[in-house]
Amino acid sequence: QQLATIQGFVKDKNLAGFFMTGAKFYGTEWDSSIPLEIVLHPLPNSNGFTAEAFYNIGVSAIQTNLKDYNVLLSVMMHEIFHIQIDEQPLETKIKLESWFFQNPSSSNKYAYLLLNEALATAIGNGFVFEQLSGILDKGEWYNWPYINQLAKEIYPLVQTYLKEGKSIDQAFVDNYIKIYEQNHPNWFKELNHTMTYRNMLSQTQSDFR
């Protein structure tokens, strides 16, 4: 019953339109012969989602008692936006990285580490949800406070670019870093933040302490 309802929602709510909006923003060209596959599996007795994306496949576990399909569709699009940033042309990736590293802010690299997740959250959980439901989600958009806060703070900037059909550019990056720096000048002192998306390798257990 859930799958049948979700399939109807996907056709009804024009997810393809959101896909094209995201592709334009990220500067990604998608080969239309490659289908996007969404895989759903049940998650009983849960209050939230888990989801991930790789290549052309998005996987989401959903609560068996789920009724709000706008939330589900926004999470599905969140994962698709990860695929889109992965599929950016190499030239675009290099340019994007250079815009961050040329910015004089001491926060530029910390802000860059959060970019992928913050954008997918702002576009998927923010913009897509608002378009589907008619109101902005007042709850938590992401279960990691740094991503959740930053995504909400950059949302007006992201929303403007999406509505105007603009692609991410240097002005966007500079404004993104400015929002990060002005709102969170002390985040770099928090270990949970500075170690986000970093891996540590050692043969000595004590190094991890």
Notes on the structure:
- The protein is mainly alpha-helical and 209 residues long.
- Helices cover 56% and strands 9% of the residues.
- It has helices at 2-12, 15-26, 69-86, 90-102, 108-133, 145-164, 170-183, 191-194; strands spanning 37-43, 50-54, 57-63.
- A 3-stranded mixed β-sheet has the order 1-3-2.
- Strand 2 (50-54) and strand 3 (57-63) form a beta hairpin.
- Helix 2 packs parallel to helix 3, helix 4 packs across helix 5 (108-133) and helix 5 crosses helix 6 (145-164).
- The longest helix has 26 residues, at 108-133.
- It is globular.
- The protein starts with a helix and ends in a 15-residue tail after the last helix.
Please name the defining characteristics of this protein.
single chain, 209 residues, mainly alpha, three-stranded mixed β-sheet, 8 helices, 3 strands, 56% helix, 9% strand, globular
Short structural description:
This protein has 209 residues and is mostly helical.
Class derived from helix and strand content: mainly alpha
Model regions low in confidence, pLDDT < 50 over at least 5 residues: none
Q: Which series of helices and strands comes N to C?
A: HHEEEHHHHHH
How many angstroms separate the termini?
A: 49 Å
Largest sheet: 3 strands, mixed
Strand content: 5-15%
Oligomeric form of this entry?
A: single chain
Q: Categorize the overall geometry.
A: globular
**Residue-averaged pLDDT, rounded?**
92
Residues in helices, as a percent range: 55-70%
**Number of continuous helical runs:** 8
The rounded Rg comes to 18 Å
Strand order of the largest sheet: 1-3-2
